User: Fold this.
Amino acid sequence: MQEIYNENTWIKGYVPSVIDQINGYFQNWAVGWSDVLIIAPWVLYQQTGDASILTDNWDAFVHYMDYLHSHEHGADQSPASGNQNYGDWLSFQGTSIEVINDYYYGYMHQLMAKIARITGNTQKETEYTQKFEAIKRKFLATHVTFDNGNLSIKSKEGNVGLQFMNWTDKKGVWENNSQSSLLWMLKLGFYDSDEMRDAAESNGKKAKISVIVK
Assistant:
Protein backbone atom coordinates (compact mmCIF):
# COMPACT_ATOMS: atom_id res chain seq x y z
CA MET A 1 0.00 0.00 0.00
CA GLN A 2 2.82 2.41 0.84
CA GLU A 3 4.24 1.84 -2.64
CA ILE A 4 0.93 3.06 -4.10
CA TYR A 5 0.98 6.09 -1.78
CA ASN A 6 4.49 6.92 -2.93
CA GLU A 7 3.73 6.39 -6.61
CA ASN A 8 0.70 8.67 -6.39
CA THR A 9 2.81 11.29 -4.63
CA TRP A 10 5.53 11.26 -7.29
CA ILE A 11 2.87 11.68 -9.99
CA LYS A 12 0.65 14.33 -8.39
CA GLY A 13 2.67 15.67 -5.47
CA TYR A 14 0.25 14.09 -3.00
CA VAL A 15 -1.92 11.02 -2.36
CA PRO A 16 -5.39 11.66 -3.82
CA SER A 17 -8.29 11.61 -1.37
CA VAL A 18 -9.15 8.19 -2.82
CA ILE A 19 -5.97 6.23 -3.45
CA ASP A 20 -4.94 5.77 -7.09
CA GLN A 21 -7.59 8.19 -8.37
CA ILE A 22 -4.96 9.94 -10.47
CA ASN A 23 -7.49 11.40 -12.90
CA GLY A 24 -10.81 10.47 -11.32
CA TYR A 25 -13.40 12.44 -9.39
CA PHE A 26 -11.50 11.96 -6.11
CA GLN A 27 -8.09 12.95 -7.46
CA ASN A 28 -8.08 16.02 -5.20
CA TRP A 29 -5.73 16.77 -2.35
CA ALA A 30 -7.50 16.67 1.02
CA VAL A 31 -6.07 17.51 4.41
CA GLY A 32 -5.79 14.48 6.68
CA TRP A 33 -6.63 12.07 3.87
CA SER A 34 -3.64 12.88 1.68
CA ASP A 35 -1.52 13.08 4.85
CA VAL A 36 -1.85 9.29 5.13
CA LEU A 37 1.44 9.17 3.19
CA ILE A 38 3.21 10.22 6.40
CA ILE A 39 0.75 9.28 9.13
CA ALA A 40 0.48 5.58 8.25
CA PRO A 41 4.26 4.91 8.30
CA TRP A 42 4.58 6.95 11.49
CA VAL A 43 1.96 4.80 13.24
CA LEU A 44 3.63 1.63 11.97
CA TYR A 45 6.96 2.85 13.34
CA GLN A 46 5.35 3.58 16.71
CA GLN A 47 3.84 0.10 16.84
CA THR A 48 6.90 -1.84 15.68
CA GLY A 49 9.95 0.31 16.39
CA ASP A 50 11.19 -0.47 12.88
CA ALA A 51 12.56 2.79 11.46
CA SER A 52 13.02 1.35 7.96
CA ILE A 53 9.43 2.32 7.10
CA LEU A 54 10.53 5.92 7.67
CA THR A 55 13.91 5.82 5.94
CA ASP A 56 12.61 3.87 2.94
CA ASN A 57 9.89 6.44 2.27
CA TRP A 58 11.73 9.61 3.30
CA ASP A 59 12.12 10.99 -0.22
CA ALA A 60 8.39 10.72 -0.90
CA PHE A 61 7.66 12.43 2.44
CA VAL A 62 9.89 15.37 1.52
CA HIS A 63 8.37 15.58 -1.96
CA TYR A 64 4.90 15.84 -0.41
CA MET A 65 6.01 18.51 2.05
CA ASP A 66 7.49 20.50 -0.83
CA TYR A 67 4.10 20.28 -2.56
CA LEU A 68 2.36 21.65 0.55
CA HIS A 69 4.85 24.51 0.87
CA SER A 70 4.39 25.52 -2.76
CA HIS A 71 0.59 25.58 -2.43
CA GLU A 72 0.09 27.54 0.80
CA HIS A 73 -2.97 29.78 0.58
CA GLY A 74 -1.20 32.27 2.81
CA ALA A 75 2.20 32.44 4.47
CA ASP A 76 2.48 29.55 6.95
CA GLN A 77 -1.08 28.41 6.24
CA SER A 78 -2.30 25.15 4.79
CA PRO A 79 -3.18 24.85 1.12
CA ALA A 80 -6.83 25.64 0.44
CA SER A 81 -9.09 22.63 0.02
CA GLY A 82 -11.35 23.87 -2.76
CA ASN A 83 -14.80 22.34 -3.15
CA GLN A 84 -13.76 18.73 -2.48
CA ASN A 85 -12.69 18.29 1.12
CA TYR A 86 -13.80 16.53 4.27
CA GLY A 87 -12.72 18.47 7.32
CA ASP A 88 -14.32 17.38 10.57
CA TRP A 89 -17.43 15.97 8.94
CA LEU A 90 -18.05 13.12 11.42
CA SER A 91 -18.27 15.35 14.49
CA PHE A 92 -21.59 16.57 15.87
CA GLN A 93 -19.94 19.96 16.32
CA GLY A 94 -18.81 21.78 13.24
CA THR A 95 -15.18 22.86 13.02
CA SER A 96 -14.27 25.09 10.11
CA ILE A 97 -12.28 23.71 7.22
CA GLU A 98 -9.71 26.46 7.68
CA VAL A 99 -9.03 25.53 11.33
CA ILE A 100 -8.76 21.80 10.61
CA ASN A 101 -6.50 22.42 7.62
CA ASP A 102 -4.08 24.59 9.58
CA TYR A 103 -3.98 22.14 12.49
CA TYR A 104 -3.05 19.29 10.14
CA TYR A 105 -0.49 21.48 8.41
CA GLY A 106 1.21 21.96 11.76
CA TYR A 107 0.85 18.27 12.54
CA MET A 108 2.65 17.23 9.35
CA HIS A 109 5.60 19.46 10.25
CA GLN A 110 5.64 18.17 13.81
CA LEU A 111 5.75 14.58 12.56
CA MET A 112 8.39 15.35 9.94
CA ALA A 113 10.65 16.97 12.53
CA LYS A 114 10.40 13.80 14.62
CA ILE A 115 11.03 11.57 11.61
CA ALA A 116 14.02 13.68 10.58
CA ARG A 117 15.49 13.28 14.05
CA ILE A 118 14.98 9.50 13.98
CA THR A 119 16.54 9.20 10.54
CA GLY A 120 19.47 11.45 11.44
CA ASN A 121 18.64 14.39 9.19
CA THR A 122 19.42 17.27 11.54
CA GLN A 123 19.09 19.96 8.87
CA LYS A 124 15.56 18.91 7.96
CA GLU A 125 14.68 18.51 11.64
CA THR A 126 15.60 22.16 12.19
CA GLU A 127 13.72 23.29 9.07
CA TYR A 128 10.51 21.46 9.95
CA THR A 129 10.68 22.53 13.59
CA GLN A 130 11.05 26.18 12.62
CA LYS A 131 8.20 25.89 10.13
CA PHE A 132 6.00 24.28 12.79
CA GLU A 133 6.60 27.23 15.10
CA ALA A 134 5.78 29.66 12.28
CA ILE A 135 2.54 27.80 11.51
CA LYS A 136 1.61 27.87 15.19
CA ARG A 137 2.20 31.62 15.42
CA LYS A 138 0.09 32.21 12.32
CA PHE A 139 -2.65 29.93 13.66
CA LEU A 140 -2.83 31.80 16.95
CA ALA A 141 -2.93 35.16 15.17
CA THR A 142 -5.62 33.98 12.75
CA HIS A 143 -7.88 31.58 14.64
CA VAL A 144 -7.49 32.32 18.36
CA THR A 145 -8.30 35.10 20.79
CA PHE A 146 -7.14 34.93 24.41
CA ASP A 147 -7.98 37.76 26.77
CA ASN A 148 -7.98 37.77 30.57
CA GLY A 149 -8.01 33.98 30.64
CA ASN A 150 -10.87 33.68 28.17
CA LEU A 151 -9.98 31.45 25.24
CA SER A 152 -11.83 31.37 21.95
CA ILE A 153 -10.77 29.15 19.08
CA LYS A 154 -12.75 30.45 16.11
CA SER A 155 -13.88 27.04 14.96
CA LYS A 156 -17.29 28.24 13.76
CA GLU A 157 -15.84 30.86 11.42
CA GLY A 158 -14.94 30.19 7.82
CA ASN A 159 -16.67 28.83 4.74
CA VAL A 160 -19.42 26.54 6.03
CA GLY A 161 -20.41 25.79 2.45
CA LEU A 162 -17.18 23.87 1.89
CA GLN A 163 -18.04 21.24 4.52
CA PHE A 164 -18.31 17.84 2.86
CA MET A 165 -21.59 15.92 2.53
CA ASN A 166 -23.88 18.79 3.49
CA TRP A 167 -22.80 18.79 7.12
CA THR A 168 -25.35 21.45 8.05
CA ASP A 169 -28.14 19.07 7.04
CA LYS A 170 -27.09 16.80 9.91
CA LYS A 171 -28.47 19.37 12.36
CA GLY A 172 -25.12 19.71 14.08
CA VAL A 173 -23.94 22.80 15.94
CA TRP A 174 -21.36 25.31 14.74
CA GLU A 175 -19.64 26.98 17.66
CA ASN A 176 -16.29 28.25 18.80
CA ASN A 177 -14.15 26.02 21.04
CA SER A 178 -15.50 22.88 19.40
CA GLN A 179 -14.30 19.58 20.81
CA SER A 180 -12.03 18.96 17.84
CA SER A 181 -10.48 22.42 17.98
CA LEU A 182 -9.67 22.07 21.68
CA LEU A 183 -8.29 18.55 21.28
CA TRP A 184 -5.97 19.57 18.46
CA MET A 185 -4.71 22.64 20.33
CA LEU A 186 -3.67 20.44 23.24
CA LYS A 187 -2.38 17.55 21.12
CA LEU A 188 -0.07 19.75 19.06
CA GLY A 189 0.88 22.24 21.76
CA PHE A 190 -0.68 25.07 19.73
CA TYR A 191 -0.54 27.56 22.61
CA ASP A 192 1.99 30.16 23.63
CA SER A 193 1.61 30.17 27.40
CA ASP A 194 0.73 27.92 30.30
CA GLU A 195 -2.34 30.08 30.86
CA MET A 196 -3.63 29.41 27.34
CA ARG A 197 -2.98 25.69 27.76
CA ASP A 198 -4.84 25.69 31.07
CA ALA A 199 -7.78 27.51 29.47
CA ALA A 200 -7.90 24.92 26.69
CA GLU A 201 -7.84 22.10 29.24
CA SER A 202 -10.60 23.77 31.26
CA ASN A 203 -12.77 24.17 28.19
CA GLY A 204 -11.97 20.60 27.22
CA LYS A 205 -13.19 19.31 30.57
CA LYS A 206 -16.44 21.18 30.10
CA ALA A 207 -16.76 19.57 26.67
CA LYS A 208 -15.86 16.18 28.22
CA ILE A 209 -12.95 15.44 25.92
CA SER A 210 -9.74 13.60 26.69
CA VAL A 211 -6.56 14.16 24.77
CA ILE A 212 -4.39 11.32 23.52
CA VAL A 213 -1.04 12.90 22.80
CA LYS A 214 1.10 11.51 19.96
User: Anything to note?
Assistant: Residues 2-206 form a domain with the Glycosyltransferase fold (CATH 1.50.10.10). The mean pLDDT is 87.
